[in-house]
Amino acid sequence: MAINIPTGDGSGEEQLNSTINTTPLVDVMLVMLIIFLITIPVITHTVPVSLPKDWNIPTQTKPENITIAVDSDCNVYWNGGRVDTDSNPRALLDLMESVAVKKPQPEIHIRGDREARYECIGRVVFQAQQAQIAKVGFITEPPPRG
Asked: How far is 63 from 106, CA to CA, in rounded Å?
């Protein structure tokens, strides 16, 4: 609180105190600090789980694995051959269903172009799910070392 101090000249006029009262500011900042100190441990509380370690495992290409490539124009390629999904939207699904019945079931490896829309890759994954393919993997390139 600021107080007005009367001058000793006897004129009866008081001088105004023109300094900023920082006491309310400090009070608000201390309250905010206490709130943050109390809430931060609650926010960062997580369930303790043992996460797997990350390492790069080279893909073992087996002859029975199927590679599906999706280019930036959403064209789909089955082991290097283009699948005409424009005229027959079920063409890729039919191919996947034909290999889904094999024992052991081959893995599907999806190679998506960096510029391909997510919808194009998602459509391939969805069709693999519809065909009941058990193993679907994504092929990427490792980042350059530097």
From this structure: 9
For residue 41, the model assigns a pLDDT of 72
Q: Rounded distance, CA 31 to CA 37, Å?
A: 10
CA pair distance 98, 3, nearest whole angstrom? 89
Task: Decide if 128 contacts 76 (C-beta within 8 A).
Answer: no
pLDDT level of residue 45 (50, 70, 90 thresholds): low
The C-alpha atoms of residue 40 and residue 85 are separated, in whole angstroms, by 52
- How far is Cα 97 from Cα 124, in angstroms, rounded to an integer? 13
Q: Which amino acid is at 17?
A: N
* Side chain identity, residue 25: L
User: 68: burial class by Cβ within 10 Å (0-12, 13-18, 19+)?
Assistant: buried
pTM (2 decimals)?
0.57
8 A C-beta contact, residue 101 and residue 29: no
66-138 to CATH, choices 3.30.420.270, 3.50.50.60, 3.40.50.880, 3.30.420.40: 3.30.420.270
Residue for token digits 């999706």?
70
